[in-house]
Amino acid sequence: MYNYVINFFRRRIDYSRLDNIRTERYKSINMTEYFNKDWQEILKENDLADFDAIWDLKSDWFEKPNIRRGGWSGVVKVKLNTTNGKVGIFIKRQQNHTTKTLFHPIKGLSTFEREFKNIVRLSKHKLPTLTPVYFAKRTINGDLQAILITKELEGYIPLDSEHFLSEDVFKDKQHKHRLFQSIATVLRNMHRHHYQHNCLYLKHLFVKADGDSWDIKIIDLEKLKWRFSKKNAIFRDLLTLHRHARSWSKKDHIATFKYYVEESKLSGKSKDLWHAIEKKVLTKGH
Question: How many other C-beta atoms can be found within 10 angstroms of the C-beta atom of residue 136?
Protein backbone atom coordinates (compact mmCIF):
# COMPACT_ATOMS: atom_id res chain seq x y z
CA MET A 1 0.00 0.00 0.00
CA TYR A 2 2.89 2.35 0.75
CA ASN A 3 4.10 2.04 -2.85
CA TYR A 4 0.63 2.85 -4.19
CA VAL A 5 0.50 6.03 -2.12
CA ILE A 6 3.96 7.08 -3.30
CA ASN A 7 3.08 6.34 -6.92
CA PHE A 8 -0.09 8.41 -6.64
CA PHE A 9 1.91 11.53 -5.90
CA ARG A 10 4.28 10.70 -8.75
CA ARG A 11 1.49 10.91 -11.32
CA ARG A 12 2.31 14.54 -12.02
CA ILE A 13 4.31 14.92 -15.22
CA ASP A 14 7.83 16.28 -14.78
CA TYR A 15 8.33 18.33 -17.93
CA SER A 16 12.08 18.35 -17.45
CA ARG A 17 12.12 14.61 -18.19
CA LEU A 18 10.36 14.91 -21.55
CA ASP A 19 12.32 15.30 -24.76
CA ASN A 20 12.16 18.68 -26.53
CA ILE A 21 10.59 20.60 -23.66
CA ARG A 22 11.39 24.27 -23.42
CA THR A 23 10.32 26.60 -20.64
CA GLU A 24 10.74 30.34 -21.05
CA ARG A 25 9.86 33.26 -18.84
CA TYR A 26 9.68 36.85 -19.98
CA LYS A 27 8.39 39.97 -18.31
CA SER A 28 4.79 39.38 -19.47
CA ILE A 29 4.97 35.80 -20.79
CA ASN A 30 5.40 32.47 -18.98
CA MET A 31 5.61 29.63 -21.51
CA THR A 32 6.17 25.85 -21.67
CA GLU A 33 6.58 24.19 -25.06
CA TYR A 34 6.93 20.56 -26.24
CA PHE A 35 7.86 19.35 -29.73
CA ASN A 36 7.69 15.76 -30.91
CA LYS A 37 11.17 15.45 -32.40
CA ASP A 38 9.79 13.48 -35.36
CA TRP A 39 7.48 16.36 -36.25
CA GLN A 40 9.41 19.52 -35.44
CA GLU A 41 10.98 19.90 -38.88
CA ILE A 42 7.68 19.07 -40.59
CA LEU A 43 5.91 21.83 -38.65
CA LYS A 44 8.68 24.25 -39.56
CA GLU A 45 8.44 23.40 -43.26
CA ASN A 46 4.69 24.05 -43.12
CA ASP A 47 5.13 27.50 -41.51
CA LEU A 48 4.04 26.25 -38.08
CA ALA A 49 7.41 26.55 -36.36
CA ASP A 50 6.31 28.22 -33.12
CA PHE A 51 3.41 29.13 -30.86
CA ASP A 52 2.56 32.40 -32.58
CA ALA A 53 2.47 30.82 -36.05
CA ILE A 54 0.16 28.05 -34.86
CA TRP A 55 -2.01 30.38 -32.76
CA ASP A 56 -2.51 32.80 -35.67
CA LEU A 57 -3.31 30.09 -38.23
CA LYS A 58 -6.49 30.87 -40.17
CA SER A 59 -8.66 27.84 -40.89
CA ASP A 60 -12.28 26.75 -40.66
CA TRP A 61 -13.28 25.16 -37.38
CA PHE A 62 -13.50 21.36 -37.48
CA GLU A 63 -15.84 21.54 -34.51
CA LYS A 64 -17.82 24.51 -33.26
CA PRO A 65 -15.75 26.25 -30.52
CA ASN A 66 -16.70 25.49 -26.94
CA ILE A 67 -17.26 28.74 -25.02
CA ARG A 68 -17.67 28.68 -21.25
CA ARG A 69 -16.91 30.70 -18.13
CA GLY A 70 -15.01 33.42 -19.95
CA GLY A 71 -12.86 31.00 -21.96
CA TRP A 72 -13.01 29.20 -25.29
CA SER A 73 -11.65 26.08 -26.99
CA GLY A 74 -11.69 25.05 -30.66
CA VAL A 75 -10.29 22.52 -33.14
CA VAL A 76 -9.11 22.74 -36.76
CA LYS A 77 -7.92 20.00 -39.08
CA VAL A 78 -4.90 20.67 -41.29
CA LYS A 79 -3.07 18.65 -43.94
CA LEU A 80 0.71 18.99 -43.76
CA ASN A 81 3.13 18.49 -46.63
CA THR A 82 5.68 15.75 -45.88
CA THR A 83 8.16 13.71 -47.92
CA ASN A 84 5.57 10.91 -47.85
CA GLY A 85 2.69 13.08 -49.03
CA LYS A 86 -0.08 14.81 -47.12
CA VAL A 87 -0.54 13.95 -43.44
CA GLY A 88 -3.44 15.17 -41.33
CA ILE A 89 -3.17 16.76 -37.90
CA PHE A 90 -5.67 18.24 -35.48
CA ILE A 91 -4.79 21.60 -33.95
CA LYS A 92 -6.63 22.39 -30.73
CA ARG A 93 -6.39 25.94 -29.35
CA GLN A 94 -7.88 27.41 -26.22
CA GLN A 95 -7.79 30.43 -23.95
CA ASN A 96 -8.76 30.53 -20.27
CA HIS A 97 -10.44 27.12 -20.67
CA THR A 98 -9.52 25.32 -17.47
CA THR A 99 -10.53 22.57 -15.08
CA LYS A 100 -9.95 22.36 -11.34
CA THR A 101 -7.63 19.58 -10.15
CA LEU A 102 -6.16 18.36 -6.88
CA PHE A 103 -2.93 20.25 -7.55
CA HIS A 104 -4.63 23.26 -9.19
CA PRO A 105 -7.72 23.88 -7.05
CA ILE A 106 -7.91 27.65 -7.50
CA LYS A 107 -6.73 28.78 -10.94
CA GLY A 108 -7.30 25.40 -12.53
CA LEU A 109 -5.34 23.62 -15.24
CA SER A 110 -5.65 24.05 -19.00
CA THR A 111 -7.78 21.14 -20.23
CA PHE A 112 -5.32 20.61 -23.09
CA GLU A 113 -2.44 20.35 -20.66
CA ARG A 114 -4.34 17.72 -18.76
CA GLU A 115 -5.09 15.84 -21.99
CA PHE A 116 -1.46 16.08 -23.12
CA LYS A 117 -0.20 14.73 -19.80
CA ASN A 118 -2.61 11.83 -20.01
CA ILE A 119 -1.52 11.00 -23.56
CA VAL A 120 2.06 10.89 -22.27
CA ARG A 121 1.03 8.69 -19.33
CA LEU A 122 -0.73 6.12 -21.49
CA SER A 123 2.06 6.14 -24.07
CA LYS A 124 4.56 5.47 -21.31
CA HIS A 125 2.70 2.23 -20.56
CA LYS A 126 2.39 1.39 -24.27
CA LEU A 127 -1.36 1.86 -24.18
CA PRO A 128 -2.72 2.81 -27.63
CA THR A 129 -3.72 6.45 -27.91
CA LEU A 130 -3.06 9.58 -29.96
CA THR A 131 0.38 10.64 -31.17
CA PRO A 132 1.29 14.03 -29.67
CA VAL A 133 2.90 16.36 -32.21
CA TYR A 134 3.11 19.60 -30.24
CA PHE A 135 1.96 21.04 -26.95
CA ALA A 136 2.48 24.48 -25.49
CA LYS A 137 0.94 26.73 -22.90
CA ARG A 138 1.63 30.33 -22.09
CA THR A 139 0.28 33.04 -19.88
CA ILE A 140 0.32 36.36 -21.67
CA ASN A 141 -1.17 39.51 -20.19
CA GLY A 142 -3.04 37.37 -17.68
CA ASP A 143 -4.63 35.04 -20.25
CA LEU A 144 -3.79 31.32 -20.22
CA GLN A 145 -3.41 30.07 -23.79
CA ALA A 146 -2.74 26.47 -24.81
CA ILE A 147 -2.22 24.49 -28.01
CA LEU A 148 -2.31 20.73 -28.47
CA ILE A 149 -1.57 19.09 -31.84
CA THR A 150 -2.09 15.38 -32.48
CA LYS A 151 -1.72 13.23 -35.57
CA GLU A 152 -4.93 12.30 -37.38
CA LEU A 153 -5.99 8.69 -36.86
CA GLU A 154 -6.13 8.01 -40.57
CA GLY A 155 -8.12 4.90 -41.46
CA TYR A 156 -9.66 4.66 -37.99
CA ILE A 157 -13.36 5.14 -37.31
CA PRO A 158 -15.14 5.75 -33.99
CA LEU A 159 -16.94 2.76 -32.56
CA ASP A 160 -20.23 4.68 -32.57
CA SER A 161 -20.05 5.04 -36.35
CA GLU A 162 -23.07 3.87 -38.34
CA HIS A 163 -20.73 1.35 -39.99
CA PHE A 164 -21.05 -0.82 -36.90
CA LEU A 165 -24.83 -0.90 -37.12
CA SER A 166 -24.40 -3.22 -40.09
CA GLU A 167 -22.84 -6.65 -40.03
CA ASP A 168 -21.20 -5.85 -43.39
CA VAL A 169 -18.18 -4.36 -41.60
CA PHE A 170 -17.30 -7.79 -40.24
CA LYS A 171 -15.93 -10.66 -42.31
CA ASP A 172 -17.65 -13.19 -40.09
CA LYS A 173 -18.69 -13.82 -36.48
CA GLN A 174 -15.09 -14.50 -35.45
CA HIS A 175 -14.00 -11.15 -36.89
CA LYS A 176 -16.65 -9.38 -34.83
CA HIS A 177 -15.61 -11.20 -31.68
CA ARG A 178 -11.97 -10.32 -32.30
CA LEU A 179 -13.07 -6.68 -32.17
CA PHE A 180 -14.70 -7.24 -28.77
CA GLN A 181 -11.59 -9.10 -27.61
CA SER A 182 -9.30 -6.26 -28.74
CA ILE A 183 -11.42 -3.66 -26.96
CA ALA A 184 -11.48 -5.75 -23.79
CA THR A 185 -7.72 -6.27 -23.86
CA VAL A 186 -6.97 -2.54 -24.21
CA LEU A 187 -9.36 -1.63 -21.38
CA ARG A 188 -8.04 -4.37 -19.11
CA ASN A 189 -4.46 -3.19 -19.65
CA MET A 190 -5.46 0.42 -18.95
CA HIS A 191 -7.15 -0.61 -15.70
CA ARG A 192 -4.18 -2.77 -14.78
CA HIS A 193 -2.23 0.47 -14.50
CA HIS A 194 -5.03 1.99 -12.35
CA TYR A 195 -6.23 4.41 -15.04
CA GLN A 196 -9.91 5.23 -15.36
CA HIS A 197 -11.00 6.83 -18.63
CA ASN A 198 -13.97 8.41 -16.91
CA CYS A 199 -15.86 9.11 -20.13
CA LEU A 200 -15.80 5.78 -21.96
CA TYR A 201 -18.31 6.33 -24.76
CA LEU A 202 -18.11 4.42 -28.05
CA LYS A 203 -17.05 7.61 -29.83
CA HIS A 204 -13.88 7.66 -27.72
CA LEU A 205 -12.75 4.27 -29.00
CA PHE A 206 -11.33 4.44 -32.53
CA VAL A 207 -10.79 1.19 -34.40
CA LYS A 208 -9.24 0.02 -37.65
CA ALA A 209 -9.41 -3.42 -39.20
CA ASP A 210 -5.94 -4.92 -39.62
CA GLY A 211 -6.40 -8.10 -41.61
CA ASP A 212 -8.37 -10.46 -39.40
CA SER A 213 -7.61 -8.44 -36.26
CA TRP A 214 -8.33 -4.90 -35.02
CA ASP A 215 -6.23 -1.97 -33.89
CA ILE A 216 -7.72 0.18 -31.10
CA LYS A 217 -6.97 3.75 -30.04
CA ILE A 218 -8.32 5.44 -26.90
CA ILE A 219 -8.99 9.16 -27.30
CA ASP A 220 -10.45 12.12 -25.38
CA LEU A 221 -8.28 11.72 -22.31
CA GLU A 222 -9.10 15.03 -20.64
CA LYS A 223 -10.97 13.30 -17.81
CA LEU A 224 -8.70 10.27 -17.46
CA LYS A 225 -7.45 9.82 -13.90
CA TRP A 226 -5.29 7.47 -11.86
CA ARG A 227 -7.34 5.67 -9.24
CA PHE A 228 -5.99 4.12 -6.06
CA SER A 229 -8.59 1.38 -6.43
CA LYS A 230 -8.61 -0.53 -9.72
CA LYS A 231 -12.00 -1.90 -8.70
CA ASN A 232 -13.56 1.56 -8.86
CA ALA A 233 -11.94 2.31 -12.22
CA ILE A 234 -13.16 -0.97 -13.68
CA PHE A 235 -16.73 -0.54 -12.48
CA ARG A 236 -17.05 3.06 -13.65
CA ASP A 237 -15.65 2.46 -17.14
CA LEU A 238 -17.46 -0.81 -17.82
CA LEU A 239 -20.69 0.76 -16.59
CA THR A 240 -20.29 3.75 -18.89
CA LEU A 241 -19.46 1.56 -21.88
CA HIS A 242 -22.44 -0.70 -21.14
CA ARG A 243 -24.85 2.21 -20.83
CA HIS A 244 -23.77 3.97 -24.01
CA ALA A 245 -23.22 0.98 -26.32
CA ARG A 246 -26.92 1.01 -27.12
CA SER A 247 -26.50 -0.53 -30.56
CA TRP A 248 -24.92 -3.65 -29.06
CA SER A 249 -27.01 -6.71 -28.34
CA LYS A 250 -26.93 -8.36 -24.93
CA LYS A 251 -24.80 -11.12 -26.47
CA ASP A 252 -22.30 -8.49 -27.63
CA HIS A 253 -22.10 -7.03 -24.12
CA ILE A 254 -21.66 -10.42 -22.48
CA ALA A 255 -19.02 -11.48 -25.02
CA THR A 256 -16.99 -8.30 -24.41
CA PHE A 257 -17.29 -8.73 -20.64
CA LYS A 258 -16.10 -12.34 -20.84
CA TYR A 259 -13.09 -11.26 -22.88
CA TYR A 260 -12.42 -8.53 -20.32
CA VAL A 261 -12.38 -10.90 -17.34
CA GLU A 262 -10.73 -13.61 -19.48
CA GLU A 263 -13.30 -16.23 -18.60
CA SER A 264 -15.33 -18.39 -20.99
CA LYS A 265 -17.59 -19.23 -18.04
CA LEU A 266 -18.08 -16.44 -15.53
CA SER A 267 -16.85 -17.01 -11.99
CA GLY A 268 -18.92 -16.01 -8.99
CA LYS A 269 -16.88 -12.80 -8.60
CA SER A 270 -17.34 -11.87 -12.26
CA LYS A 271 -21.07 -12.61 -12.09
CA ASP A 272 -21.36 -10.24 -9.14
CA LEU A 273 -19.64 -7.49 -11.14
CA TRP A 274 -21.85 -8.13 -14.18
CA HIS A 275 -25.03 -8.05 -12.11
CA ALA A 276 -23.89 -4.86 -10.34
CA ILE A 277 -23.34 -3.18 -13.72
CA GLU A 278 -26.70 -4.32 -15.07
CA LYS A 279 -28.47 -3.20 -11.91
CA LYS A 280 -26.89 0.25 -12.15
CA VAL A 281 -27.82 0.53 -15.82
CA LEU A 282 -31.43 -0.29 -15.04
CA THR A 283 -31.44 2.23 -12.16
CA LYS A 284 -30.07 5.02 -14.35
CA GLY A 285 -32.01 3.95 -17.41
CA HIS A 286 -30.96 4.29 -21.02
Answer: 23
- Could you tell me the pLDDT band of residue 163, with boundaries at 50, 70 and 90? confident
Amino acid letter at 11? R
- 157-284: CATH topology is Transferase(Phosphotransferase); domain 1 (1.10.510)
Kind of pairing, strands 157-158 and 29-35? unpaired
AA letter at 160: D
Provide the whole-model pTM.
0.87
Could you count the other beta carbons within 10 Å of the beta carbon of residue 248?
Answer: 18
Q: How far is CA 28 from CA 17, 51, 140, 224, in A?
A: 26, 15, 6, 32
Q: pLDDT value at position 4? A: 46
Spell out the domain ranges in the chain.
Answer: 2-151, 157-284
